Amino acid sequence: EIGCPDPVKAQFLQDHCQAAFTQAALSATGHLVTVHFSVAGRPTSPRRPAAEPPFKLHPDYSFDNFVVGPCNRLAHASCVAVSHALGTTYNPLFLYGSVGLVKTHLLHAICHEVIRGNSATAIQFLSCESFMNRFISAIEQATVADFQRQLRSVDLLIIDDIQFLRERERSQEEFFHTFNALYNNHKQIILTADSSPSDLSVEDRLISRFKWGLVARL
């Protein structure tokens, strides 16, 4: 939370400088921290719940430490390609496979590579559960516009375990519009799940969009 002398300055910083402050926080802490600007203790965006710590990149989960084999060659190659050309190559990128098949390693590796190439890149890396919890909190606090601005202004959005959107109609609706906003602005979207898009219990329009880019199995 960053204090500002008046609402005009706070709103300007929120609209135009959040990415720079976010990357500064990342460089200082090693965490993907969401930065908010406030006036006299009044936040312009909802605080993250205390029970949800900032996402920390694992230092060992890099492409250099990833063992490539026949079962993951396509997924590895697509992740490397995406990390060097956000929003232009394989967008969205959809990775799926059972638990323990290094999806998390690849997601961390993408973030490491993107940050190494351009430390000013704005990244949101969320579990699907975190996405839904933050959306529900935004509804309760009447800060949905702030929530939408946070997610739709990034360069790279990663949602892990997207299959948990099932039976969450309002969350599916919100993610549908977030997906469209990012895709139309040529921002990168990366999703993971335990099954292929066709086997997910979500709306058909989401399944269709999940297939727009590259689907890679692990």
Give a short summary of the structure.
By secondary structure, the chain is α/β, with parallel strands linked by helices.
Attribute tags:
218 residues; alpha/beta; 3-stranded mixed β-sheet; 8 helices; 10 strands
> What's the tally of helices?
8
Q: Indicate the low-confidence ranges by residue numbers.
A: 44-53
By helix and strand content, what is the structural category? alpha/beta
- Average pLDDT over all residues: 87
Query: How far is it from the N-terminal to the C-terminal residue, by CA?
Result: 39 Å
Could you say which overall geometry the principal axes of the C-alpha atoms support?
Answer: globular
Q: State the order of secondary-structure elements, H for helix, E for strand.
A: EHHEEEEHEHEHHEHEHE
> Main β-sheet: number of strands, strand sense, barrel status?
5 strands, parallel
Number of separate strands = 10
Largest sheet: spatial strand order:
7-8-9-6-10
Nearest-angstrom radius of gyration?
17 Å
Helix content bin: 40-55%
Beta-strand percent range: 15-25%
How would you characterize the overall build of this protein?
With 218 residues, the chain is of the alpha/beta class. Helix content is 43%, strand content 17%. It contains eight helices and ten strands. The protein has a five-stranded parallel beta sheet with strand order 7-8-9-6-10, sandwiched between helices. The chain has a three-stranded mixed beta sheet with strand order 1-3-4, covered by helices on one side. Strands 2-5 form a two-stranded antiparallel sheet. Strand 3 (37-39) and strand 4 form a beta hairpin. Helix 3 (73-84) runs parallel beside helix 4. The longest helix has 16 residues, at 169-184. It is globular. Residues 44-53 have low confidence and may be disordered.
